[in-house]
């Protein structure tokens, strides 16, 4: 199998390394041709001088890890020429772009997989299995959090889409994935305590959202850009008979206020480290999907559903009110 990879940045380079062990050949392209050649040389992979050359290099599948603005066009282009495609979230930069992209893909049987890696994280999968088995009893509360160790560069913030669309969208998808339920309404808030870059962009550096699920379950999602103790992603599912948590181990940057358990390992520095196993698993699933001709394990419609929740949260935060998902659904 010959797989093309568009985008040789941080996550692209990590995916290229994984793909090198899964595919017969990997060909890498980037807007910076020198960077593509550098990553390819390190891995013994091929390099193309731009995406046009990449598309004409006899590919069997495409992986898109470019900046967000290029995602939609590359996905549509790949599907039109019959290439199964994996694309990092989001499918497009905003809600309108996501809907337009899905409209362009409608009617095609070429599979598209969205990179919501938490669906492949062992802890999140185990939590989902616990819910499905019924051993937790009826689920009454879900808590999901994403705490970044350091904020993104200031230049990234104005184009990020905001905390809920850029960061918490992973939590929204994880809540839907683990519970198997739909989110019906949200109430969100946010604050700024760090330097002013977020406030200047109309964004927040810390936020929380309370989500109502369609079976009456309550979910709470929290996020911050400032958690210097370490990168921390956890999800708790609390039921009438038992509870489970994904992401709690000896590297969780959390300490008891008094005597008690203390983490023994170093905290995760960032998402590539925390989700290394999940990133590898989702690419294995993609390559297997291409080889077997099976359905996508995370189709693009899932990206739209998570984006609806993020959009509703942003409206709720700005307007200080509860927002039903049907209000933003199109």
UniProtKB/TrEMBL annotation:
Source superkingdom: Bacteria
UniProt GO MF annotations: nucleotide binding; oxidoreductase activity
Signal peptide: none
SUPFAM superfamilies per record: Glyceraldehyde-3-phosphate dehydrogenase-like, C-terminal domain, NAD(P)-binding Rossmann-fold domains
Pfam families: GFO_IDH_MocA (PF01408), GFO_IDH_MocA_C3 (PF22725)
Keywords: Oxidoreductase
InterPro entries on file: Gfo/Idh/MocA-like_OxRdtase_N, GFO_IDH_MocA-like_dom, NAD(P)-bd_dom_sf
Gene3D superfamilies on file: Dihydrodipicolinate Reductase, domain 2, NAD(P)-binding Rossmann-like Domain
All copies of domain GFO/IDH/MocA-like oxidoreductase, residue ranges: 125-241
Residues annotated as domain Gfo/Idh/MocA-like oxidoreductase N-terminal: 1-116
Family indicated by similarity: Belongs to the Gfo/Idh/MocA family.
UniProt-listed PANTHER family: BINDING ROSSMANN FOLD OXIDOREDUCTASE, PUTATIVE (AFU_ORTHOLOGUE AFUA_2G10240)-RELATED, NAD(P)-BINDING ROSSMANN-FOLD SUPERFAMILY PROTEIN-RELATED
The name this protein goes by in its record: Gfo/Idh/MocA family oxidoreductase
Organism: Actinomadura barringtoniae
């Amino acid at each position: 199998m010959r797989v093309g990879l568009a985008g040789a940045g941080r996550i692209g380079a990590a995916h290229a390394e994984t793909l090198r062990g899964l595919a017969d050949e990997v060909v890498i392209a980037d807007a910076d041709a020198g960077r593509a050649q550098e990553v390819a040389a390190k891995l013994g992979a091929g390099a193309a001088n731009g995406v046009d050359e990449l598309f004409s290099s006899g590919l069997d599948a495409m992986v898109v890890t470019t900046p967000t603005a290029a995602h939609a066009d590359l996905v549509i282009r790949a599907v039109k020429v019959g290439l199964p495609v994996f694309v990092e979230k989001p499918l497009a930069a905003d809600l309108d772009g996501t809907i337009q992209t899905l409209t362009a893909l409608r009617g095609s049987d070429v599979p598209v997989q969205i990179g919501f890696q938490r669906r492949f994280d062992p802890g999140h999968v185990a939590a989902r299995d616990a819910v499905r088995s019924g051993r937790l009893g009826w689920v009454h509360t879900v808590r999901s959090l994403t705490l970044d160790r350091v904020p993104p560069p200031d230049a990234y913030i104005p184009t990020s889409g905001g905390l809920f669309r850029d960061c918490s969208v992973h939590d929204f998808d994880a809540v839907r994935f683990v519970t198997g339920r739909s989110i019906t309404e949200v109430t969100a808030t946010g604050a700024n305590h760090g330097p002013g870059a977020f406030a200047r962009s109309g964004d927040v550096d810390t936020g929380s959202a309370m989500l109502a699920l369609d079976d009456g379950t309550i979910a709470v999602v929290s996020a911050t850009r400032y958690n210097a103790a370490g990168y921390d992603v956890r999800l708790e599912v609390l039921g009438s008979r038992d509870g489970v948590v994904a992401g709690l181990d000896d590297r969780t940057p959390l300490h008891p206020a008094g005597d008690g358990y203390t983490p023994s390992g170093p905290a995760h520095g960032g998402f590539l480290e925390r989700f290394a196993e999940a990133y590898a698993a989702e690419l294995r699933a993609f390559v297997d999907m291409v080889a077997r001709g099976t359905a996508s394990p995370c189709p693009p419609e899932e990206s739209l559903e998570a984006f609806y929740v993020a959009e509703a949260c942003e409206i709720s935060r700005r307007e200080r009110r509860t927002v039903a998902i049907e209000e933003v659904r199109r």
